[in-house]
Each structure stands twice: as structure tokens, then as C-alpha cells.
Amino acid sequence: MFPLTKQERLVLVTLGIVLLLGTVFHYAFKKNPSLKDIVNVMDSQKIYPKVDINQVSSEQLIKIPYIGPVTAGNIISYRNKHGTFKSWEELKSVDGMDEERFSRIFPFLKELHSEKRYEEL
Amino acid sequence: MKSYRPLLSITLALSVGILLASVISLPFRILGLACCFLFISTVFFMRKRIVFEGLLIGSFILLGIVCSRNNHILPKDHIARVAHFYKSGMTVMEGVVVSDVQRRPFFKGKKNIFTLDVKRIEAPWGWQEKSGKILVQVFRDTPIQCGDYLLLKGKLYRPFNFSEDEKFSYREYLDRKGIKLILSVGKQGIWEIVQSGAGQMLKTVSYQLKSRLAKIFLEHLTANEAAIMIGVILGDRYLIPQHINELFIQTGTAHILAISGFNVGIVAFIIFVILKIFPIGRKGQYVLTIVLLIFYAFLTGGQPSVVRATIMAGIFLLSFLFEKETEAVNSLSLAALIILIVNPMNLFDVGFQLSFVSVLAIICVHPRIMGRLSKFSFPQDAKVLQFFLQSLSVSVSVWLWVAGLIAYYFQIITPVTILANLIIVPMSTVVIILGFGMIFLSMFWLPLALAVAACIKVTLNLMVICIYLLSQMPFAFFYISDMSLWQVGIYYILLLLGTIIVLSRSPVINEIDIQKTLP
Q: Do residue B176 and residue B235 come from a single domain?
């Protein structure tokens, strides 16, 4: 047979363990699709980095998908002129923001404090 | 015994020359003649060491200036010289695709982006032979591949600068890659594949292979999972969603997404194991491994970090071949020298700077931190503690030395990096090994690859959850206002002084132990 070193034998054993574990996971995901959804965090909105629209800077706004320099500038200008956003309707009224764009950026925004207090009441 | 590092001073001299190129305004011919003169003079002063070294360093400084200026000189038939005639209206041209074709999502469809080596351009009086590289954006999904000879009709323009931030000038970024113009082929434009296989064989084959390997991940993982795997295994990071990229940046673990020495090491190990099956001697195995590693560097697009790692791995393997010892700083310097001679503008590339500074920190600072720690008495068989301390030492060394560059380019400071690297790097190790395993096994029997894909799914998602949780910790990261070059300079001077004062008297632990921790 092939002269294998200790490390190479370890690799082959590890490969066997990985294949066994992988087969178990693959079977579990097929049998129980909801388990796959639990594991699949990367495609969910749970890990979206959320920003506070009332405190975020222009540079941080640009990092949000679908917000470019112009829209970010408009949001900051609106905030400087009218104060903090009290509701999402105010944000939708900013130049460059429409319903479709708002629905795309909403997962990246922390909830507004005024809206949270309203829900608590 | 003091280490002999002749290549370090030569590489530093070349770098100084590249930096001075923008300041010195002497004619190119005079600089070239002076450079040749100094090089020839070194031959006559070989026996006088100080004079010889002075002349050699002077030669390389001038060589840096000459190479840098040469990079900016356009040939007479370069397309950039006539681009202003095509400002209004559509431009028709032909050329060969010389890069991988990126297929990026664009609204409800896809756009294809690639580099074109221009061959000729249509003028009112007929076709004109031209040269030069341009970036092409085709706002449709096409079957265009690397090596295709194309006929294109679109709008030709100079790259815009999207922000006033000079550090991220898109125009300068493309300029560093030798691209002066962009051609946009929209709805009114035309694209046509005139001939396939017209490009370099090696590039064409490697990109076609990369495309096939990427499909393996895309078919068996979700889009985001496949995007990360394609990034860490094949070097294409453009598919990674911005919000996931941001998480990695916020925790200082974005280096995991770049191909580096660890990936190259795994590829080398896999090649070694496979070559054991064939009746090739040890020396043949080393040579074949080097050749295949070079192919892997081509496959992944030849980024500075992977080229650096490939050159260092090649030197390491050659040292076994010729039974000579290697010196890590010398090997690193040789890698930098080769990369800078091929393209001097790489000196200003963020990836180049981060890659070399981090490896230098691991080579020079980490052993001295371990030397300091070795003064404390630890149980001899406490391998877990030893591993933890080594990882901590590497993490601290690298974080301190790249923090200045990260703050300058990305305006972010990430204190959580040290903790994050201790947790995430071992997990990314497992993910990378599984990724290569999946590719390898898919060539034999698909069910095996599916089993590995399931393991990748679990490990990768667990890693991303950990990154997300680390980013949510208090004081994990904070953004800073714009940092000037002077502030970065002062930071590094203070850091160097601090390192010298604190660690200069520390013993340096055995180099053989260090080799295991090199990326």
C-alpha cells in the first residue's frame, strides 16, 4: 500500500468523520426542511447590520444597499432641516426614497424610538 | 546568529523609488541612463563593500522611479490617446477578453464586466489598429468568456470618481491596473463573439476551470453561502453581499475572505497527498507542486496576497530541493520585489499593503512576544494553552500593525478583532478545508460532495452567527473621522518605538515553530 505519514492518516480519518457527519446533516435537512431554515442564517435578515436612521452618518448610510451618495445626502439634509425622523412615512417623503426602495432598506434600520413607544402603549 | 537580509534593503530602495517617482520631474531618458550607469558602476566597486552597497541601493531607487514612470507612459497607438474624439456618440471596437467575466446582479437581470485588450477601433475613415486595456460593462447576461475576440459598440468614457475621498479614487484604482477607459454596452449597444480562444491559453483554461468550480458551490449551496466559498477558495469576492462584507469589516475578520498563505498551504498539501499515488521522486513532487501552485495563483486572479503566498511557498519548497535554509524576511522581500517590478503601482494597493504588513508583523513581532511570554513558566504538556498563547500573540501583532492602515483606508477601529480572530480563524480554517474537500470529491462522486456541502452549510452559518454576535458586543468597533497620512505616520513611528523599547531585549523563539503560524 502507499506509505502514509501520521499526518496523512489523520487526514483520511478526518475525511471519514466529515463524510459521516455530512451525510447525517444532509439527511436531517431533507427530512426536516425547517431545520435547514434555522441553520441558514446567512440568507435571513437576522444578521443585517442595523443602523439608527436618526444618528447614522452619511458615510455609514452609503454602506446600506440601495442607498447612494445622493439619497444619503438627502436623508441627512432632511434630518438637519426637520429634526429626527418620528415615523417611517417621514423617511419615505425624502427625495429619492419611494415605497420600493424603502422596503429594500427597511431590514437594515433599527426601529424608531417613537414607533416603539406607540406599540408599547 | 544575525540573519542576512540583502533583499530587504533592495526592496525598500525600490519602494522609495516608486514613491519618489511622482515628485521627481527629470526626463525619463536621463533617469534611465543614470540607472544604467549606477548598475554598471556596481560591477567596478564589488570589492569595496560600502560603496558597492550604496551604489546598489541608489540603482534600485532609480529603478523604482524608472519602472513607475514607464508604467505611466502610453504607447503611441494607445486607445486613451484618441478617446476624446469619441466623447459623443457610440464607439465600435474589437478586442480580446483578457480577464475573468464577472456576472453581477443588476436590477432584475445581470451585467457582465470584463477587461478588454483593444485591437482596433472604427474611425470615419476605416478601422485603426489600437492597443490598451479598457473595462467593459455589458448590461445583459452574455456567454462571453475569457479569450473571446469581440466586436463591441457602446459608449466610451473616462472612469468617474464616485466620492471626493482621494483614498478610494475609482479612476486611480483602474489606472493602477492599466485601465484608462470604460466602455458601456447598453440596450443600444452591440456585442458579438467573433472568435473564441483568441487569448492566452493559460489564462483562458484557468478562468474556465474557475467558472466550473464556482458552479459546484452555486449548485449545492445557497447564493450567499456559495458567494463566500467562491471568495475564499477561488478569489472572486464580488458576489458577497455588502451587509455580510460589512460584518467581516466590523469585526476585523475581512482578511479571511482574501486568499492567503493558508489557502496556498492547503492546496500544496492536497497536491502532495495526490502525488504520492504516482511514482514520482521527492524532487519531482516539489517541482510539480510549485507548478500547480503557480496555476492556482493564475486561477484566483493573481491578487497580491496570493502571489505573495505562492512565491513564499515556492521559495520554501525550492529550499528543500536545493537543501538550503530560507530566511522569512528575505523570502517576503523577494515576493514584494517581483510584484513591484511587474507592476510598481501595486505599492499603493490596499491589499498589497495589508498583506505584507501583516506577514511582516507575524515574522518580526510575534516571535518576540512569544519570547517575552516564554519567561513565564507554563506546564510543558499544556498544548492547548500554548496554542492559545501563540494565536493570541499572532492576533495582537497583526492587529497593532494593520490598525493604522485600516483606520486610514476604512475609517474604522475594531478592538474586537483580537477576540474575533481567536474564534473565527479556526472556524474559517475548517470552512476552507471543507471547501477544497468539496471541490476535490465532486470530481469523483457527487454524493460525497453533497455530504461535505452539508458540513460547510452548518460550519459557515455558525461562523457568520459568531461574527454577527461579535459585532453586536459593546465597543466592538467604532467609526472615526478621516485620518490623514501624517497621523498614520505618527502612529507607526510610535508603534515602532514602542515595539523596540518593549520587545528589543526579548528572545526570539525557534524559527521552526514560527513557520507553523505563517499564513
A: no
